[in-house]
Amino acid sequence: MTVFCLIELDGAEVADASLRALTLARGLAGADGGPAGLVAVAFDTLPAPVGASLAAYGADDVYLVSGIEGYAPQAQARGLAGLLASAADVSVAGAFLPGGALPDGALPDGAGPDGAGHAVVAAGTDHGNEILAHLGAITGLPMAANCVTASAAGAGTVDLVRQRWAGLLLEEAVLDAPHVLLTVATDAVAAEPAPAPGAAVVHEVAAAVTESDLAVRAVETSAGTGGASLATARVVVGGGRGVGSADGFAPLEELAALLGGVVGVSRVVTSEGWRPHSMQVGQTGTKITPDLYLACGISGAIQHFAGCAGARHIIAINTDPSAPMMTRADYAIIGDLHEVIPALLKALHDRAPS
Ligand SMILES: Cc1cc2nc3c(=O)[nH]c(=O)nc-3n(C[C@H](O)[C@H](O)[C@H](O)COP(=O)(O)OP(=O)(O)OC[C@H]3O[C@@H](n4cnc5c(N)ncnc54)[C@H](O)[C@@H]3O)c2cc1C
Known about the structure:
The protein is an alpha/beta fold. It is built from 9 helices and 16 strands. Strand 15, helix 8 and strand 16 form a beta-alpha-beta unit. The relative contact order is 0.13. The site of flavin-adenine dinucleotide (FAD) has 27 residues, from helix 6, helix 7, strand 15 and helix 9.
């Protein structure tokens, strides 16, 4: 099985969620006894460290698909459909690249329209899930979102375990189809480099997209995060209703900056308009996997916890010792965050070399 893995970037590096997706994809490549190949697919220009990471994670080839600016999920799905159509026996109207095929040698030996199964894998991020949902609609192939494991159980059959209900339930499923589309849970698969690096040979190809494919298109900005994204930050300082106001976030932002992290918030905070939805942690926000989550004035509702359960360590600050976040945290500080955070800031400033 040849596996195409969609790559998302975080600044000048491969996003952590994509490294996890590459790890799962690598295990699937060739596991059905057919031709093996791990092919990374990107829609951005690739800074040098990205190529090195893709090689370290075992990518044999890298397709750099041009012609789509910004985030355009249907157009990017069309580009992926074109790759799949060129590699496999998939009939997709309008999906072919100009010329109808990939350059000679662009696919691993043995891969091609020979009846072998192929898979397209992406990170289970908002973008990854949306693009693969479009790809499923374009190709008619089945898609399984937020997979934790996936293994080929023979030609055309993939056994998988995937998260349902925001990660509260694990479902065992079997995909029985010529080719399959999978996204990888962002908090459940550890990113592991390959035992031997791949060649990561870069092929530049142009996507054949129509105007209607580009009807939905966004150009992203990441203002105010200092470069680190909420999904990949190693430290997240979370604020909930207990922060009290939009202005009340200033000490949390100062603390996050001192710890090299970013601020995340609960849904109450976004509903109040204190901070934008892009900062929300949870079932309907971002899933985070930091080393440290400092949850301040957050009760720890199940929908919030669904987004932060992947944190390695949780420290909660809350006036209510029985709040769910306090009972689930590794360390709980019972107190008013308006007193505790200034004390923490003072301690950190006192420790800093003058
Ligand atoms: C379908 C659905 C999806 C949802 N998705 C999400 C989601 O993605 N993310 C999300 O966060 N929520 C989500 N929610 C909402 C969720 O159920 C909760 O309502 C929300 O998380 C509560 O936010 P909170 O903890 O900030 O507020 P509250 O539950 O009101 O908790 C505030 C906490 O602050 C403490 N506190 C108050 N003052 C202080 C102080 N001075 N110092 C210290 N502690 C203090 C209180 O003791 C309390 O524990 C969703 C709900 C639904 C129905």
